[in-house]
Amino acid sequence: MLGPVLLAASRSAAIRRIVSAAPVTRPTVDRFVAGERLAEAVPVVRALADRGLEVTLDHLGEDITDPAEALRNRDAYLALTEALAAEDLAGRAEMSVKLSAFGQALPGGHDLALAHVTPVVEAADAAGTTVTLDMEDHTTVDSTLAILAELRRRFPKTGAVLQSYLFRTEDDCRALAGEGSRVRLVKGAYKEPASVAYQDKREVDLAYVRCLKILMAGEGYPMIGSHDPRMVAITQELARRLGRKLDEYEFQMLYGIRPAEQERLAAEGHRMRVYVPYGTDWYGYFMRRLAERPANLAFFLRSLAGRS
């Protein structure tokens, strides 16, 4: 029952002030966020790459209310692209972007987000890396997939995220399972109404497996975003049954969650990509991580109790 409460809290300015002021918060956030500045994130990417892991980087920032913020987020990603190229990391690290950070929710937001994300995708391609469009709440799906289609005309490696808890996602998986398509499948981390999304964990899991089967049987490149051992095992079995090679799909997990499992999969020869967020706007991301897994919340509460 705490999950929906924490998801609601992720959008509360009052609770944000309380959590941000707690002395224990910063050390706990550091478990999941690779610093507030690009200069702090780059060494994290280097260390992960040295351990045989690949990375996708997310400059935190979403639900912006000012067009100037969209420009700042665009410029932050352009700086990130330059840093990856300069550090010779573009071959091991891609970028994840939330289109709300590029102005998607502002008036004229669809066109604004497309205008701001396009130079980022262009710069990524020139640097030898690519971009994946993160998916946000259900109201943004149509716009995000339309922007994806536009970007893929010039940059076919541009990827997208689909969330299994939405009723529509099986159809979206079928539409995006074609040759060259890159899709990260996740369960979903936003509070969605029962009219558009499964509410029961078991139903979400079953939907994830159905979507996973569609993507693994398709001609695209599935990216399995899950920490669930069952989903990892099902993916491996599907790959064996369908004859997919180890370089024809990948696993993705969040920075700070199950790092030993990440290294185990990489050591077995799997492509294992770590989702690494950084930036000052960490609050919403942090609260969703607490909501997703009781172990994350328990970790935070134990830390809080230890400081009391």
TrEMBL record:
Pfam families linked: Pro_dh
Entry keyword set: FAD, Flavoprotein, Nucleotide-binding, Oxidoreductase, Proline metabolism
Catalytic activity: L-proline + a quinone = (S)-1-pyrroline-5-carboxylate + a quinol + H(+)
Pathway assigned in UniProt: Amino-acid degradation; L-proline degradation into L-glutamate; L-glutamate from L-proline: step 1/2
Proline dehydrogenase domain: residues covered: 45-299
Cofactor(s) recorded in Swiss-Prot or TrEMBL: FAD
Presence of the UniProt keyword Nucleus in the record: no
Class in the EC hierarchy, top level: oxidoreductase
EC number, as in UniProt: 1.5.5.2
Entry keyword annotation includes ATP-binding: no
Protein name (record): proline dehydrogenase
